[in-house]
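Appendix C reproduces, verbatim, an entry submitted by the partner laboratory led by Prof. M.T., so that reviewers can inspect both the input and the predicted structure.
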Amino acid sequence: MTPLDPLDAESEALAKVFGTYEARPMHACESCCDTALAARLSAEGEGIAPRDLAAYLLEAVHLLGDEKDFKRLLPRMLTLVAEGNNPHASAIEEVFECLDRIHTNAWSAEEREALRRWLWAFWRHLCSAAGRGKQKPYAGALRGMATLGEEGEVVAMLNETRADPLIRSEDHTSELQSPCN
């Protein structure tokens, strides 16, 4: 048996922590939400399909579903982002904009820690040879950590990146500054 990639291992851990939220009929504002999307997201199974990610993120929590629905879908959304299997590059930033609205500081310590550990694994994946050239949502990963209130860890991520000459040579200066503004 091959050991799991650190990102895969943290994705599994995240799914386990957030797997306690069960699928249920999702509230949807009938005048402004896609009720077919709400029905698809309410069903058991994988959770959210790549084609539905952007639409859900636009309406998440306020118009479509609630915080429990978001938490249930979070591991799948982050998997889609990590795989680069999302309809647009800003998906990770939109996931963390939703997290900003939800106020993760009220989440359990276990949920916050699982998300923090996933973000570190995602960061290291982005900075690894495997992650290079595929996607570059560095700012999204940093924003996620800042959303959790982990400013010291944002600094550690930036320092780790600045120490890597291959990443430094790609010049992501504007991306690396944006979540700290």
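Confidence is low (pLDDT under 50) at residues 169-181. Additional entries are available on request from the coordinating office.
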